[in-house]
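Lab channel / #folding
Pinned by the channel admin:
"Please post every new chain as: sequence first, then the structure tokens as a reply. Keep commentary short and put observations after the output so the thread stays searchable."

First post following the new format, from NK:
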Amino acid sequence: MKLLAWPLVAALVASSGAAVADGPAPAQVVLSCEAVYETVLLTALDNERIQLDTASLTWRSDFRGQATSQGRCERR
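Reply from TO:
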């Protein structure tokens, strides 16, 4: 989502400048944008694949297909 916010800001600035070319200077617009992640995060560290599900607060781990594990997470 963060990557999509910058073109939007550029489009707003470009369109506001074109609309008031002969008039007063356009007002400054400041947007604050946050990254929004899907509910499942996947990562890998030292050949271990880790899946975090933020919706169900659970995790799963797989180490090269040799060992697997899963558990619950707590929000603090």
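NK: The longest strand covers residues 40-45.
TO: also worth noting, Residues 1-36 form one domain.
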